[in-house]
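INTERNAL AUDIT FORM
Audit reference: QA-55
Scope: verify that the stored structure record matches its stored sequence.
Auditor: D.O.
Record contents follow.
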Amino acid sequence: MLKMFIESLKNLFSEPATLPGFGTEPPKGYRGLIVYNKEKCIFCTKCELVCPAGAIRFIYPEDGSRNLEYKYNPYLCIYCGECVRECPKEGALIQTDKMPEPATKEDNPNETWFEIEKLAEESKKKWQLALAKKRQEALKKAQQAKQGKKEDNQDKKN
């Protein structure tokens, strides 16, 4: 018992095992941060669907286009790599061996992420409505064009 007490006192006054700025090396095979490449992404949203932790979200534009905005929460991510495996476009998502920077109270990652999740859900609903409206307009144009061709053919027959 005395031996443990002496060892504890030594540790109290010795330098820490990890010095600030140096950190620790990740173990071999460490699955780290997910890196996103917008140029290679085809916006299929499969990564968002398969993420078990919900660490990937897309913000949808209101105009119904496919120009989505990718959001990733490294503090929520469990680094399973499912998003990388599911991605059909090689290089759009890459899992590195880098560790995330520690979050601070000022970063407030949880509160910010709750806002992003809410925005993502709302934007997806608006996007789906805009997309449905676009499809409806396209269908209406196609029907009008088809109707116009029928009338032209009838005029030619007469």
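Auditor finding: record pair retrieved intact. Helices lie at 2-13, 46-50, 82-86, 109-157.
Action required: none
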